[in-house]
Structure prediction request, 201 residues.
Amino acid sequence: MKKILMGLAFSALALIGCAGTSDDPEALDNALVGFTSCVQGSRWQEALDYVTPDEANQISPDGYEFKQEYQIAARRLPLSTLRKAGLQVDGRGRLVGIKAAMDEANERYVVSEEQAKVGTNLEEMEKKHIQQRLEEGQKIMQEEEQEAEQEQQVEVFTNKLTDEEKRKYGSTRDLQAPEEFKDENTEEAEEKIFNGDYESD
Prediction:
């Protein structure tokens, strides 16, 4: 009876040991080396042997190949990084937490891509801003040239006006005195005024 009880107790301890996790450095390193070696050789089914069944089902539902995102993540994670990831092994030396480490690697990559895009956008925005300033400067220069052209046209047009047109349109600049007009009657009238012979009516 005692032997039976002892056997049951030993089996229970063995099951607990398999279900629990361990920080055993040697067992962890063996699992990590085996896992990364299989990943680098694209031996996905063999790599799954180093992962707990629950995580293996999430990483590879068919049990043969990793999902695409986990293939990429696993290749992004070198052995040195995995050793610092705080992973553990179960009682059979299988990795616990490897899926979370790969998820984190994918998230970091996505964030890095977004940050890179932000930097690119800032550069593009700066270029657009410079282009807008150049276009505004060109527009101002064109407006100034048009104004100068219009002033020249007005000046040329004004200079072409006759004295009579200048009086009519109010442009008296460069206006010359009207030419003196004389005929026989005006000459006779002037002589009378000069001689005092002019009689008013």
